[in-house]
UniProtKB/TrEMBL annotation:
Designated name of the protein: tRNA-specific adenosine deaminase
EC number: 3.5.4.33
PANTHER family according to UniProt: CYTOSINE DEAMINASE FAMILY MEMBER, TRNA(ADENINE(34)) DEAMINASE, CHLOROPLASTIC
UniProt catalytic activity: adenosine(34) in tRNA + H2O + H(+) = inosine(34) in tRNA + NH4(+)
Active-site annotation: 54 (proton donor)
General function of this protein: Catalyzes the deamination of adenosine to inosine at the wobble position 34 of tRNA(Arg2).
Family as reported in the entry's similarity comment: Belongs to the cytidine and deoxycytidylate deaminase family. ADAT2 subfamily.
Cofactor note: Binds 1 zinc ion per subunit.
Amino acid sequence: MFHSQMDAALSEASAAAARGEVPVGAVLTDAAGRVVARAGNRTRELSDPTAHAEILAIRAACAAAGSERLPGYRLWVTLEPCPMCAAAISAARIAVLYYGAPDPRMGGVAHGARVFDHPQCHHRPEVYEGIRAEDSAALLRSFFGARREGGR
Ligand SMILES: [Zn+2]
């Protein structure tokens, strides 16, 4: 019954990189384990600083469910969610969060704001980190490395 969706999240991250977006991907499964949404970052394409992979996946899943809450859903993300996404994950009542690489600079789960550990956080998902972390980190390194070499 349990089936990792990190492969699919990593392929969304690769697709984001190919579009010139920071390579982060996300997949949401419902309580029955079905994939209901998958997305990669689209902040540049949409000129929208909130268009992170997690937000896009949550929006799509909520629209499909006709609900602002996703109880029993599981979210797979290639990188530690930022504080904005962590707050959205909590608001959506997502049951389980699996993420890949840690993000000491922008992360908001194990770093920085530690949104789920805050007393104001009313719903804390189960959190599993470090899943395919090296693959996720390699995608980010090659993306930012290539951009540096491009003289941006
Ligand atoms: Zn985010």
